[in-house]
Protein backbone atom coordinates (compact mmCIF):
# COMPACT_ATOMS: atom_id res chain seq x y z
CA UNK A 1 0.00 0.00 0.00
CA UNK A 2 1.19 3.52 -0.80
CA UNK A 3 1.09 5.78 2.25
CA UNK A 4 2.21 9.28 3.15
CA UNK A 5 3.31 10.48 6.58
CA UNK A 6 0.98 12.92 8.31
CA UNK A 7 -1.91 12.22 5.91
CA UNK A 8 -5.21 12.17 7.79
CA UNK A 9 -6.88 9.80 5.31
CA UNK A 10 -3.92 7.39 5.36
CA UNK A 11 -4.38 7.32 9.15
CA UNK A 12 -8.11 6.56 8.79
CA UNK A 13 -7.30 3.80 6.24
CA UNK A 14 -4.81 2.34 8.73
CA UNK A 15 -7.30 2.57 11.61
CA UNK A 16 -5.02 5.00 13.47
CA UNK A 17 -7.67 7.74 13.49
CA UNK A 18 -11.34 7.13 14.32
CA UNK A 19 -14.03 7.53 11.67
CA UNK A 20 -17.66 6.51 11.31
CA UNK A 21 -17.07 3.78 8.74
CA UNK A 22 -19.99 3.09 6.41
CA UNK A 23 -18.40 0.42 4.27
CA UNK A 24 -15.17 -0.91 2.85
CA UNK A 25 -13.87 -3.05 0.02
CA UNK A 26 -10.45 -4.51 -0.62
CA UNK A 27 -9.35 -1.23 -2.21
CA UNK A 28 -11.31 1.61 -0.55
CA UNK A 29 -13.05 2.73 2.62
CA UNK A 30 -16.17 4.88 3.05
CA UNK A 31 -16.82 6.99 6.13
CA UNK A 32 -19.00 9.90 7.14
CA UNK A 33 -17.60 13.39 6.56
CA UNK A 34 -16.73 15.15 9.83
CA UNK A 35 -18.38 18.35 8.63
CA UNK A 36 -21.39 17.28 6.54
CA UNK A 37 -22.55 19.60 3.77
CA UNK A 38 -25.70 17.60 2.92
CA UNK A 39 -28.11 15.35 4.85
CA UNK A 40 -26.00 12.40 3.66
CA UNK A 41 -22.31 13.17 3.18
CA UNK A 42 -19.77 10.37 2.97
CA UNK A 43 -16.21 10.26 1.71
CA UNK A 44 -14.83 7.32 -0.24
CA UNK A 45 -11.06 7.00 -0.09
CA UNK A 46 -8.87 4.56 -2.02
CA UNK A 47 -6.30 2.89 0.21
CA UNK A 48 -3.32 4.04 -1.85
CA UNK A 49 -2.16 7.60 -1.26
CA UNK A 50 -2.18 9.83 -4.35
CA UNK A 51 -2.81 13.53 -4.15
CA UNK A 52 -5.89 13.67 -6.34
CA UNK A 53 -8.15 11.60 -8.58
CA UNK A 54 -6.13 12.26 -11.71
CA UNK A 55 -3.00 10.97 -9.98
CA UNK A 56 -4.89 7.87 -8.79
CA UNK A 57 -6.22 7.32 -12.31
CA UNK A 58 -2.73 7.59 -13.76
CA UNK A 59 -1.22 5.23 -11.20
CA UNK A 60 -4.05 2.70 -10.97
CA UNK A 61 -7.09 3.29 -13.20
CA UNK A 62 -9.08 0.49 -11.55
CA UNK A 63 -8.87 2.18 -8.15
CA UNK A 64 -11.41 4.81 -9.21
CA UNK A 65 -13.79 2.10 -10.35
CA UNK A 66 -13.59 0.58 -6.88
CA UNK A 67 -14.26 4.00 -5.35
CA UNK A 68 -17.37 4.59 -7.47
CA UNK A 69 -18.68 1.10 -6.72
CA UNK A 70 -18.28 1.62 -2.96
CA UNK A 71 -19.83 5.10 -3.20
CA UNK A 72 -22.91 3.57 -4.82
CA UNK A 73 -23.04 0.81 -2.21
CA UNK A 74 -23.03 3.16 0.79
CA UNK A 75 -25.44 5.64 -0.80
CA UNK A 76 -27.91 2.87 -1.62
CA UNK A 77 -27.48 1.29 1.82
CA UNK A 78 -28.47 4.61 3.40
CA UNK A 79 -31.59 4.78 1.22
CA UNK A 80 -30.23 7.25 -1.30
CA UNK A 81 -31.00 6.05 -4.81
CA UNK A 82 -29.92 9.45 -6.15
CA UNK A 83 -26.70 11.16 -5.16
CA UNK A 84 -23.88 13.36 -6.35
CA UNK A 85 -20.17 12.49 -6.50
CA UNK A 86 -17.71 15.36 -6.17
CA UNK A 87 -13.95 15.28 -6.69
CA UNK A 88 -12.21 18.50 -5.69
CA UNK A 89 -8.82 18.87 -7.34
CA UNK A 90 -6.49 21.62 -6.18
CA UNK A 91 -6.70 24.14 -3.35
CA UNK A 92 -8.34 26.65 -5.67
CA UNK A 93 -11.24 24.21 -6.09
CA UNK A 94 -11.58 23.68 -2.36
CA UNK A 95 -9.39 20.60 -1.91
CA UNK A 96 -8.06 20.53 1.65
CA UNK A 97 -7.00 16.89 2.04
CA UNK A 98 -4.49 15.83 -0.58
CA UNK A 99 -5.31 12.12 -0.59
CA UNK A 100 -7.83 11.21 -3.29
CA UNK A 101 -11.40 11.17 -2.01
CA UNK A 102 -14.86 11.28 -3.52
CA UNK A 103 -17.62 13.18 -1.74
CA UNK A 104 -20.95 11.33 -1.83
CA UNK A 105 -23.76 13.83 -1.27
CA UNK A 106 -27.46 13.08 -1.06
CA UNK A 107 -30.66 14.34 0.44
CA UNK A 108 -30.58 17.74 -1.20
CA UNK A 109 -30.61 18.96 -4.76
CA UNK A 110 -28.90 21.56 -6.87
CA UNK A 111 -25.48 21.55 -8.48
CA UNK A 112 -24.88 25.12 -7.29
CA UNK A 113 -25.06 24.29 -3.61
CA UNK A 114 -21.81 25.00 -1.86
CA UNK A 115 -19.70 22.11 -0.73
P1 LIG B 1 -11.88 18.43 0.33
O1 LIG B 1 -12.22 19.84 0.72
O2 LIG B 1 -10.39 18.16 0.39
O3 LIG B 1 -12.50 18.00 -0.98
O4 LIG B 1 -12.61 17.52 1.38
C1 LIG B 1 -12.03 17.12 2.59
C2 LIG B 1 -13.17 16.67 3.46
O5 LIG B 1 -12.61 15.88 4.48
C3 LIG B 1 -13.92 17.82 4.13
O6 LIG B 1 -15.29 17.74 3.76
C4 LIG B 1 -13.71 17.59 5.61
O7 LIG B 1 -14.87 17.85 6.37
C5 LIG B 1 -13.32 16.11 5.67
N1 LIG B 1 -12.41 15.76 6.75
C6 LIG B 1 -11.22 16.36 7.03
N2 LIG B 1 -10.62 15.73 8.05
C7 LIG B 1 -11.44 14.70 8.41
C8 LIG B 1 -11.37 13.69 9.42
O8 LIG B 1 -10.41 13.58 10.18
N3 LIG B 1 -12.40 12.82 9.50
C9 LIG B 1 -13.49 12.89 8.65
N4 LIG B 1 -14.46 11.97 8.82
N5 LIG B 1 -13.59 13.83 7.70
C10 LIG B 1 -12.58 14.72 7.58
ZN1 LIG C 1 -2.92 9.58 2.35
UniProtKB/TrEMBL annotation:
Domain HIT, chain residue ranges per copy: 8-114
Superkingdom in the source lineage: Bacteria
Residue span of motif Histidine triad motif: 99-103
Pfam entry (one): HIT
Entry-linked PANTHER family: HISTIDINE TRIAD HIT PROTEIN
Protein name per UniProt: HIT domain-containing protein
Organism expressing this protein natively: Nocardioides potassii
Amino acid sequence: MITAPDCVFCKIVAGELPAEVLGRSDAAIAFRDLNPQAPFHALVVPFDHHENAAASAAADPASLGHVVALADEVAQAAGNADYRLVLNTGAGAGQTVFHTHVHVLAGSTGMTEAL
